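Final report, section 2: Outcomes. Of the targets proposed, Putative RNA polymerase ECF-type sigma factor is the one most frequently requested by collaborating groups, and we therefore present its record in full.
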Amino acid sequence: MDEAALVMAARDGDQRAFADLVNAHRNQIWAVCLQICGNQHDAEDALQATLLAAWRNLDKFRGEARFSTWMHRIAANNALALIRKRKANTTLTDFSDPEAPVTLDADDSAPRFDEQIALRDALRDALQQLSDDIREAVVLREFGDFSYADIAEHQGVGVQTVKSRLNRGRTQLAQYLRVNTTVEP
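The predicted structure is given below as tokens.
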């Protein structure tokens, strides 16, 4: 069954068709939630809210954009709403020394896997330092494989604004990683 037929079946209440639609895009939807939220627990909450919202609002999907674009928009909006809510309701205390850089074990026998994990964690921390609009653009482009035009439509801005946000985001990420890690971005 093609995507349009699956959407029609899901609108008629076919949960299997909806599951097929979601399964085709689940990895990208999860990546968007995880990268925007910054942790698995919040990403799971955002993903659950996304799936529920998509199911409840299938009748509002007009088909002007691809189904995946529509789902990514819902995921990004839910993830951003969740972190805004958490920020408003939570006071975070950082007990670490802000002057101490993150370092990896310099032992040459350390597996490359450790460096990958350290870089992933540092990147997640760096993403949290970006403003919401820049983080969303970076996540949609780098983890959601969105085109500039799709991101522009999603954010309600022009393509040049998206390119500017991506440029600023990449610059800020690289700067954060250079200052806060020993891993090269």
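The two ends are 42 Å apart (CA to CA).
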